[in-house]
Specification:
alpha/beta, 10-stranded mixed beta sheet, 15 helices, 10 strands, globular
Length: 387
Amino acid sequence: MVISADNKPAAFSKTTELQVGQTSTSSWFSTNWLWNWKPTSLQKLQQAESQLFSYVKCGVEKKFVELKNGSKIWTVMTSKKKSTIPLVMVHGFGGGVGLWVMNYANLSQYRQLYAFDLLGFGQSSRTQFTSKAEMAEEEFVESIEEWRNSLNIESMILLGHSFGGYLSTAYALKYPNRVKSLILADPWGFPERNPSQPRQTPLWIRVLVNLLSPFNPLALVRVAGPLGPGLVKKFRSDFREKFQVLDDEKETQILDYIYHCNAAHPSGEAGFKSISGPLGYAYRPMLNRIGKLDSNIQVTFIYGARSWMDQNSGRMAQSLLPNNHVEVFSIKGAGHHVYADRPQLFHQIIGNILNPQSHDDDVTNQPDDVTNQPDDIINQPDDIISN
């Protein structure tokens, strides 16, 4: 069952689309006529998200969590499990809570689960970020901390994908007492750029980077107006394969969801652009800082073997964190969206981390059908490589 909150961010207009002449620096839609030309609206995003959540086979509650400055964070949570540290899932660039639909039911059997749209993404408020890398990162991190504090979460296990992995690590560096464990799924922003060794980035990404470098990363989707949905379906048709367990209607809905997440005012996108440098590297690479991570925080890297992300970063982090428990996994047949490419194997790895006995000595209740080490992952099967 999905419970949707009625309250909307204050910056949203009642009709969800601003009329020409209205002004709002943090609104979901821009006041420029160009943005009204796009076939998107808050209602369409909500409809696409609801369609995806009809696949979720566990009870969830949805609501906005208000921050001190009035911004609101769109949040999904499952039922509370007594005496366990919750799992908090942080999506990547251009994503939202809807991309975890294949993971909620499985992962929520271990612990209470939270997911939220990062500030500036999805249904969360579209605030204005600074153009300076360190300050933009700080703004993202502080929004996560305010969100945590508003929900009275004392400690959490952070699962971050891509850009969400970068922000989760930045958060753990600043608020180590709030993080029990870091799970980094194909994290972005760890290595430093080495001009003599070009990244093995997909051609379509390299073309877009060169073409759109003066603009926000997904500007083309918005400038294309009514052609925007078609561009997403053409260039990100791979998502239909990733979400092929959904029925035909929802396979299309995932692409609609991605479009509506990114067709609105590019707030979080601009924040990401401030943090990222040439060719998508981080201005402040995480490998230069991760050595300062509290030694009590367990770190797990989960890469897709076919991903274009630099997997050496996980192994380098192991050497930079000699006093932390650090594991690095690579799942064969999975790409950057490892949580959707091979969800069963992804769940098996995380299931061992989320086992309540791993973090809470006073908790002994574990689902009967879950063991500490599934038969097909003992000593790592051929399609999971552990380093």
